[in-house]
């Protein structure tokens, strides 16, 4: 109820560029279970809208090219950051697409660069979209959260992963999935993305009316 209206802006934008065959969905590991960077390479994920199949060939190619990702189902067992994206995609495209889930416990810059480069190499000849899932500032007053989050958004819009890490450290921004976002930025630039556009920003306070302690959310589109 908090993040959905913001995320919907990104999913509304997607079909204006046709129908991808494949989505690679990146999210943080909130529970500390499993490998540092964990992928699933087979099976289906089931939502109330139906089953979505994992692209086994692509998943294994990503593992081979990265050298740092483990095939580890346990990291995904309770994690929500990837799975909550699927109903949006199913609403837009049905269940005709395949996907690859990657969960990040390790979110240091070197890891994200390595994974991002592996994704770019794997996906360069595929009709694919990468989605990165994160919340932004957690449990701060709305004005302060918005100020911090704007600095983070500015780094993403500039496609500057070094600035993103600097902003997170300098302003103690509690975005849970900065690693997945960084990985997306690295991969996007490798495949020729030149611009990023903020589509929507809101906080939980915009929904509840409680602005004393909010969580921030943004939707950003990276496009060639």
Please, could you describe this protein's structure?
- By secondary structure, the protein is α/β, with parallel strands linked by helices.
- The chain has one domain: 3-Layer(aba) Sandwich (Protocatechuate 4,5-dioxygenase, Chain B).
- The protein has eight helices and ten strands.
- The strands form two sheets. Strands 1, 2, 3, 4, 5, 6 and 7 form a seven-stranded mixed β-sheet that branches. It has a three-stranded antiparallel β-sheet with strand order 8-10-9.
- Strand 3 (44-47) and strand 4 (50-54) form a beta hairpin.
- Helix 2 packs across helix 4 (109-123).
- The longest helix is centred in the last third of the chain and has 16 residues, at 142-157.
Provide a concise account of the structure shown.
With 224 residues, this protein is of the alpha/beta class. The chain has one domain: LigB-like (Protocatechuate 4,5-dioxygenase, Chain B). It is built from 8 helices and 10 strands.
Mind sketching the topology for me?
Blueprint: H1 4-13, E1 22-28, E2 37-39, E3 44-47, E4 50-54, H2 56-66, E5 70-71, H3 86-93, E6 98-104, H4 109-123, E7 128-132, E8 138-140, H5 142-157, H6 161-171, H7 178-190, E9 195-203, H8 205-208, E10 214-223
Parallel strand pairs: 1-6, 1-7, 2-5, 4-6
Antiparallel strand pairs: 2-6, 3-4, 8-10, 9-10
Q: Please summarize the sheet with the most strands.
A: 7 strands, mixed
State the helicity in percent bands. Answer: 25-40%
Name of the CATH homologous superfamily = LigB-like
Helical segment count? 8
- Strand share of the residues? 15-25%
Quote the CATH topology: Protocatechuate 4,5-dioxygenase, Chain B
Could you say what the CATH architecture is? 3-Layer(aba) Sandwich
What do the pLDDT scores average to? 96
CATH top level class name:
Alpha Beta
Instruction: Return Rg in Å.
Output: 16 Å
């Amino acid at each position: 109820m908090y993040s959905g209206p913001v995320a919907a802006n990104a999913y509304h934008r997607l079909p204006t560029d046709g129908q991808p065959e494949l989505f690679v969905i990146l999210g943080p590991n909130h529970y500390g279970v499993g490998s540092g960077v964990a992928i699933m390479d087979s099976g289906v994920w089931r939502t109330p809208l139906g089953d979505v199949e994992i692209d086994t060939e692509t998943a294994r190619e990503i593992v081979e090219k990265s050298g740092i990702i483990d095939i580890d189902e346990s990291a995904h067992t309770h994690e929500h950051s990837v799975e909550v994206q699927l109903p949006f995609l199913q609403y837009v495209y049905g269940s005709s697409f395949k996907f690859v889930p990657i969960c990040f416990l390790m979110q240091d810059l070197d890891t994200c660069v390595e994974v991002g480069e592996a994704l770019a190499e794997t996906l360069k000849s595929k009709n694919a979209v990468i989605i990165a899932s994160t919340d932004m500032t957690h449990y701060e007053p709305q004005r302060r959260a918005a100020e911090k989050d704007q600095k983070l958004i500015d780094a993403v819009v500039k496609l500057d992963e070094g600035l993103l890490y600097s902003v997170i450290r300098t302003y103690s921004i509690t975005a849970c999935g900065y690693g997945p976002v960084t990985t997306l930025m690295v991969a996007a630039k490798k495949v020729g993305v030149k611009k990023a556009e903020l589509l929507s920003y809101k906080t939980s306070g915009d929904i509840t009316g409680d602005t004393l302690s909010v969580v921030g959310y943004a939707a950003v589109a990276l496009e060639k």
